[in-house]
Every structure is written in structure tokens, then in C-alpha cells.
Amino acid sequence: MSESTLDTQELGEKVVTVLKTIYDPEIPVDIYELGLIYDVFVNEDRDVKILMTLTTPNCPVAETLPVEVEEKVKSLNEVNEAEVEITFDPPWTQDLMSEEAKLELGFL
User: Fold this and answer.
1) N or C: which end of the chain has fewer CB within 10 A?
2) Taking CA 11 as the corner, what is the angle to CA 7 and CA 13, rounded to the nearest 5 degrees?
3) Count of helix runs (H) and strand runs (E) in the chain
4) Residue 89 belongs to what H/E stretch?
5) How far is residue 102's CA from residue 55's CA, in Å, rounded to a whole number?
6) C-alpha pair distances (Å), 13 with each of 8, 20, 21, 95
7) Distance CA 22, CA 11 (A)
8) Coil, strand or helix at 85
């Protein structure tokens, strides 16, 4: 495994750690455990792209949540650039939540 591969993987893990500090204001579970993060891409230039969704297209935080995600990821020293792309394909469902999130919200 090359050093750059390790770096991008390590940085990806740090990004996930940051994502787990961001909460949907209406649900007491972080956006990662909620399943709102579909993918985190880290390239060798340390640019991060996050593919995420929202619980609904007219989610009250549709304007602010992606900005918060971008800002918090950019705050990592190792990150060069961060971009958040919102998608509704596939649409979010409760099935995307982690077991912890389902337990926390009483779905289990």
C-alpha cells in the first residue's frame, strides 16, 4: 500500500469523524449514523467530495446543512478543498440509518 493511499484512507476516516459531529436539528442522531452521507471521496491532492442527501427535499436545513458539512470538513488541517453534493437519488429512507440510530430513535 503506497503512502498516498494510506493518507487518503486516513483522511477519509478523519472526515467521517467530523461528519459524526454534525446533527440533523430535528433528530438527535448525527448525519452519518442517519445514513445521509452516501459517499466520501478523497483524492491525492487532499480534496474531499461528499455525496449526501437530506431526509426530504424540503428539509428545513437544506440550505444550511451542506454549508455546515463543507465548513467543518474544510476546518481539518489536512483537507485542501471540500465540496458537498446533494442528491436525492436514491431517496433517503429509514433503512439507511445505522443500527445505533434506529435504536436511539426507537425503531428497533
Assistant:
1) N
2) 120
3) 3, 3
4) none
5) 14
6) 9, 11, 13, 23
7) 17
8) strand
Length of the chain in residues, anyone? 108
- What's the pLDDT tens digit per position in 50-66? 999 999 888 888 889 99
pTM above 0.85, yes or no: yes
Residue 38: CB atoms within 10 A of its CB come to: 16
For residue 56, give the amino acid letter: T
51 neighbors 15 (Cβ within 8 angstroms): no
Q: What per-residue string of b and e applies to 65-88 under the rule 16 or more CB within 10 Å gives b?
A: bbeebbebbeebeebeebebebee
- Choose between 5 and 43: higher pLDDT: 43
CA distance 72 to 41: 16
Contact call for residues 54 and 90 (beta carbons, < 8 A): no
Distance CA 89, CA 60 (A): 19
The amino acid sitting at 12 is: G
